[in-house]
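Onboarding guide, step 5: your first structure request.
Type a short instruction followed by the sequence, for example:

Predict the 3D structure of this protein.
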Amino acid sequence: MKILTKSEDSHGSFNLSIVTLKKVDRAWFRTVVYTAFALIAFAANSVLCRLALGVAAIDAASFTTIRLVSGTLVLLLLARATRKTSTADHRGNWTSAFMLFLYAVTFSFAYISLNAGTGALILFATVQATMITFAVFKGERLRLWGWMGLIVSLAGLTYLVFPGLEAPSTTGAALMAVGGISWGIYSLRGRGTVSPTAVTTDNFLRSTPFVLFISLLFFKSLHITFAGAFFAALSGGLTSAIGYVIWYAALRDHSATSAALVQLLVPVLAALGGVVFLTEPLTMRLLLSSAMIVGGVALALTQRENSVRAETIGGTRPFRSR
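The system replies with structure tokens like these:
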């Protein structure tokens, strides 16, 4: 360091680039860890939903209510332990809370009339469309290899769920599309969150009146077993609440495009979770489609990461891109 300092005139800018690159690497590693944790939580949440709703262990309204209320309780305990101050940066908002509720309730009700494959395809295609449309509107652009990676990933997703595809009911498809749009908006609104734990807690808390209203509205359809309530509580308190906090933390260093792309990995992780926890078969279709999805996402994100690193070394922009 001392030698580099003495030769500042000839090497100063290069030394600055090395330091900046190290910061980029640390931020990149943190984002990868947060993103991986969140995606695993989303996939686990999907498995829990299938365990509860797939065997009619609980009705959709009660599942949604227990899920969000239990998530709120867990987050209140977590926020109480981590909150330092109460400022605007630590608060959620009613729009995000309603998007959270709308995603959760439409997701649950859609699977009453949709099978897993059709539902997954509609959900994640809608999430991609919502977030990438927003990204394009805000000036983000995928280059050729990025678009190719997206196409390969979507093809892999279609191939993965193809055996279960069927002509969906109009109601089920509409509900799942609304769920995808709602989740896309909720994710987009989480970019730039300063305090993920506090903001997610406030959003969950604000969603409580909505889910209680839904439970009252569908009170005549009430059906709760111990197993159904357990899976709903586990889904809310662990894979939803904690997963969403980590997702909001990861979103601080994601563009809208990359945040949309990485979520295509969730069906792969959920399918693998089905193999491990639901004794579903490990097929060649699953392996091939997983390779297509992972490869496509990696292709798109690697191009973006290389572009960001090159621009950072050149001193033209910081790591985070919004």
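Each response can be followed by summary notes, for example: Residues 8-53 form the longest helix (46 residues).
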